[in-house]
C-alpha cells in the first residue's frame, strides 16, 4: 500500500540559482528562466518564482516537476485557508513551517523533493526571508541564495547588503549578482525575472535581459606579446 | 664483466613502481596519508602599468589549519611571480624548479626572463605528469613585451586573461572581479579590488583565511607586500599582556576555626 521506496532519484529538468534579499519595504527575489535538461537548455521560459497567497513568494531551484508539485500543494493549502474565511490568512512564517515539514518528511522516506526553496514574505510589517533545502535544512537570513548563487552571489551580498535598502538599491544589487551568475554559471541564461513582495502586494516582473560586456581589450587579442601561447 | 654493486638511479621524474601496490592496499582498507593542501584563494589582475597578484595565507591539512601564515606568492624571476594553489609541496617544488631553470636561461641568453618562458616551462612539466602534480597557478609578470597574466591548471592547460582566480575560494573572488573589474585601473584601484577579492575568499570559503598577501609588478620593479592586510586579528588580547603577578588584595580565612564537629570523630590534622 505504501509507495515504492526510491533511493535513486535524479533531477531531470533543473532550474539554476534563486537569489533573495530583504529591503526596506519587503523582499526581492530573482532568478533566471532556464530549465536545463542535463547540459541542454531545454526550456527558456520556465517561471521559477510563484506567488503564494497575498503576502508570500516562492522561488525554487532544482527539479522543475517537484517545484510544480510543491506549488500544487501550496495552492491547495491556500485555498483551504481561504475557505475558512476567518479573517486571518496564512503568512510566510506559517508557509515556511509547512514547507519544512513536507521536505523533511519526504527526505525521511528516501524520496526527496529535489528542490532548494527560497521563501519570502511580509505580514503585518514583519519581514521574512528563508530557505528550505531538499533534505529539510532551513534557516532565515537577510539574504539567501541557492545552488551556484551560494558561491557567487552570497560573497557579494555579505559585502554590499545593508539594512533598509531602497527598492532601486535592492534591484541594482540583485542585477549585479544575476550578471555574475550569467557569466560564470553554465546553466544560466540572460533572461531573468524578479519578484517583489511588500505590504501593498506582490509583483512579478516580465522576463528581462541584462546588458553584458565582452568588450575587454584583453579579450580581443589575448596572446598579444605572447605569440604561440594560449 | 663484474656486476656493479651500485644500481644506477632511474632517469629523472617519478617512478610509478609502487602505484599498483598502493592501489591494492587502498582497496583493502588502508588509509592513505593526507597531504597538505593550500585550499586557497589566489587572484591576479592586469592594471594600467602592470600586474597585481594576491593570495590568502592559510594552509590546510584535511580539516586542520596547519599553517596560519604561509607564503603562497612564489618568486620565479625578478619580474615574474607565481601564486600557487593545490598541494603545497607540488606548488613549492614546481615553482622552485622553474625559477632555477629561468635563472640558468637568463645566464645563457643575457636577457630579462619573459613570462611566456615561465609559462611554457610550467605547462610542459605539468602536462607531462598528466595532472598528478596538483599545482594550479596564477602566473603574472612584466617583461619587454608588456604585462602578462596567465592561469595554469594542473593538467597543463593555460588561460591568458586580464583577471584570474584559482583555488577553493576562486568563485567568491571571481564574483568580486566580475562585478568590479575595469580595464586600465590605477595601482590603488587595482590593489583595492584584489584585496576585496581575497577578503571575499577569506570570509566566504573555509579553505582560505588569515591574511592578504600582495605582489605588485610593474616595469620599474616589484613590490612584495607580505601581509598587506590582516583582517583576522586576535581580538581578545591585551596589548600589554595580562599580568597575574600583582596582588591587589589578599584575605586569608582559616577554615578550621569554622568547623564544629557535631558527631563522630574530628578529622585528623597533620
Automatic annotation (TrEMBL), chain A:
InterPro entries recorded: Ntn_hydrolases_N, Proteasome_alpha, Proteasome_beta4, Proteasome_bsu_CS, Proteasome_sua/b, Proteasome_suB-type
One Pfam family from the record: Proteasome
Major subcellular site: cytoplasm
PROSITE patterns: PROTEASOME_BETA_1, PROTEASOME_BETA_2
Membrane-traversing stretches: none
Keyword Nucleus appears in the UniProt entry: yes
Keywords tagged on the record: Cytoplasm, Nucleus, Proteasome
Cell location: Cytoplasm; Nucleus
SUPFAM superfamilies in alphabetical order: N-terminal nucleophile aminohydrolases (Ntn hydrolases)
Record bears the keyword Transport: no
Family affiliation: Belongs to the peptidase T1B family.
PANTHER family listed in its UniProt record: PROTEASOME SUBUNIT ALPHA/BETA (PTHR11599)
Its biological purpose: Non-catalytic component of the proteasome.
Protein name from the UniProt record: Proteasome subunit beta
Upper taxonomic lineage: Eukaryota, Viridiplantae, Streptophyta, Embryophyta, Bryophyta
TrEMBL record, chain B:
Keywords linked to the UniProt accession: Cytoplasm, Hydrolase, Nucleus, Protease, Proteasome, Threonine protease
Catalyzed chemical reaction(s): Cleavage of peptide bonds with very broad specificity
Localisation per UniProt entry: Cytoplasm; Nucleus
A Pfam short name: Proteasome
Coiled-coil positions: none
Domain of life: Eukaryota
Subunit and partners: Component of the proteasome complex.
Role summary: Component of the proteasome, a multicatalytic proteinase complex which is characterized by its ability to cleave peptides with Arg, Phe, Tyr, Leu, and Glu adjacent to the leaving group at neutral or slightly basic pH. The proteasome has an ATP-dependent proteolytic activity. The proteasome is a multicatalytic proteinase complex which is characterized by its ability to cleave peptides with Arg, Phe, Tyr, Leu, and Glu adjacent to the leaving group at neutral or slightly basic pH. The proteasome has an ATP-dependent proteolytic activity.
Similarity comment text for this entry: Belongs to the peptidase T1B family.
Protein name (Swiss-Prot/TrEMBL): Proteasome subunit beta
Amino acid at each position: 500500500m505504501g509507495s515504492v521506496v526510491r533511493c535513486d532519484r535524479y533531477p531531470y529538468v533543473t532550474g539554476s540559482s534563486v537569489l533573495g534579499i530583504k529591503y526596506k519595504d519587503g523582499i526581492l527575489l530573482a532568478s533566471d528562466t532556464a530549465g536545463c535538461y542535463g547540459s541542454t537548455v531545454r526550456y527558456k521560459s520556465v517561471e521559477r518564482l510563484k506567488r503564494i497567497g497575498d503576502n508570500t513568494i516562492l522561488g525554487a531551484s532544482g527539479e522543475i516537476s517537484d517545484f510544480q508539485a510543491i506549488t500544487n500543494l501550496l495552492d491547495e493549502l491556500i485555498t483551504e485557508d481561504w475557505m475558512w474565511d476567518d479573517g486571518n490568512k496564512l503568512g510566510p512564517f506559517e508557509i515556511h513551517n509547512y514547507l519544512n515539514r513536507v521536505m523533511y518528511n519526504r527526505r525521511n522516506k528516501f524520496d526527496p523533493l529535489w528542490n532548494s526553496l527560497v521563501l519570502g514574505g511580509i505580514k503585518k510589517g514583519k519581514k521574512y526571508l528563508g530557505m528550505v533545502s531538499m533534505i529539510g535544512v532551513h534557516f532565515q537570513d537577510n539574504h539567501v541564495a541557492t545552488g551556484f548563487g551560494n558561491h557567487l552571489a552570497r560573497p557579494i551580498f555579505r559585502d554590499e547588503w545593508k539594512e533598509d535598502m531602497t527598492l532601486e538599491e535592492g534591484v541594482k544589487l540583485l542585477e549585479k549578482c544575476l550578471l555574475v551568475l550569467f557569466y560564470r554559471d553554465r546553466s544560466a541564461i540572460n533572461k531573468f525575472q524578479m519578484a517583489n513582495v511588500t505590504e501593498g502586494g506582490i509583483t512579478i516582473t516580465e522576463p528581462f535581459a541584462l546588458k553584458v560586456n565582452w568588450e575587454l581589450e584583453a579579450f580581443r587579442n589575448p596572446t598579444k606579446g605572447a605569440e604561440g601561447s594560449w | 664483466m663484474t656486476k656493479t654493486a651500485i644500481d644506477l638511479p632511474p632517469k629523472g621524474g617519478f617512478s610509478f613502481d609502487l602505484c599498483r601496490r598502493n592501489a591494492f592496499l587502498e582497496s583493502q582498507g588502508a588509509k592513505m596519508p593526507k597531504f597538505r593542501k593550500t585550499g586557497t584563494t589566489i587572484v591576479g589582475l592586469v592594471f594600467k602599468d602592470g600586474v597585481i597578484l594576491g593570495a590568502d595565507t592559510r594552509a590546510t591539512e584535511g580539516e586542520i589549519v596547519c599553517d596560519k601564515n604561509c607564503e603562497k606568492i612564489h618568486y620565479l624571476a625578478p619580474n615574474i611571480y607565481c601564486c600557487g594553489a593545490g598541494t603545497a609541496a607540488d606548488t613549492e617544488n614546481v615553482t622552485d624548479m622553474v625559477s632555477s631553470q629561468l635563472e640558468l636561461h637568463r645566464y645563457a641568453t643575457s636577457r630579462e626572463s619573459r613570462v611566456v618562458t615561465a609559462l611554457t616551462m610550467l605547462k610542459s612539466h605539468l602536462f607531462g605528469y598528466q595532472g598528478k602534480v596538483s599545482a594550479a597557478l596564477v602566473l603574472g609578470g612584466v617583461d619587454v613585451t608588456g604585462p602578462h597574466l596567465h592561469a595554469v591548471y594542473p593538467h597543463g592547460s593555460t588561460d591568458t586573461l586580464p583577471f584570474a582566480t584559482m583555488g577553493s575560494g576562486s568563485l567568491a573572488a571571481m564574483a568580486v572581479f566580475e562585478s568590479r573589474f575595469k580595464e586600465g585601473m590605477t595601482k590603488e584601484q587595482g590593489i583595492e579590488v584584489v584585496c576585496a577579492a581575497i577578503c571575499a575568499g577569506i570570509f566566504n570559503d573555509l579553505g582560505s583565511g588569515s591574511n592578504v598577501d600582495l605582489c605588485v609588478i610593474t616595469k620599474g620593479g616589484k613590490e612584495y607586500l607580505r601581509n598587506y592586510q590582516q583582517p583576522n586579528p586576535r581580538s581578545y588580547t591585551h596589548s600589554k599582556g595580562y599580568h597575574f603577578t600583582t596582588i591587589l588584595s589578599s584575605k586569608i580565612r582559616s577554615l578550621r576555626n569554622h568547623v564544629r564537629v557535631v558527631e563522630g570523630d574530628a578529622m585528623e590534622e597533620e
